[in-house]
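Quick note —
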Amino acid sequence: MIILLHPSVPATSVPEFIAYAKANPGNVNMASAGNGSAPHMAGELFKMMAGVNLVHVPYRGQGPAMTDLLGGDVQVLFATAPGTTDYVRTGKLRALAVTTASRAEVLPELPPVGDFVPGYETSQWYGMCAPGKTPVEIIDKLNREINAAIADPGMKARLAALGGEPLLGSPAEFGRLIAEETEKWAKVVRAAGIKPE
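Predicted structure written out below.
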């Protein structure tokens, strides 16, 4: 994801945006793709870790949130890269940083938020699961084939064009990732008071 600002916000870096938000508590509107969406969670984690007071404005998807960001009705959006990079390149929106741990191929000039807010990292990930009683040999075969498919240079290039990167690993590593992410985001949900709709 990327932190996007409306050009009216006088900040060109994450530290400048944090200073601006701290100087204007409760007056900076943060759009999201909806309550509990990945962009909403990324924004809430940022609020917690940077110590800023942004007002959450949920939308029904990233499209409507982008429309209001472009119109200046909201000032900041944590957005997925696909569909946003043209607005950055044409100057209609300002990108500050990526939320991943390292720079992204799609906008390599953007630093990670973690360079300014130590420990901040969030990325969307997708994985494949099977029913609990699936035999181990089938799980292992699926894991080998899926890892081989996403390691293919053509697949890697396609994922990179969409702003994604393959994450290869074993079923045990994936299980640890799920457990770690569940714990991390449960803390954010509790701290932000997020409730299902």
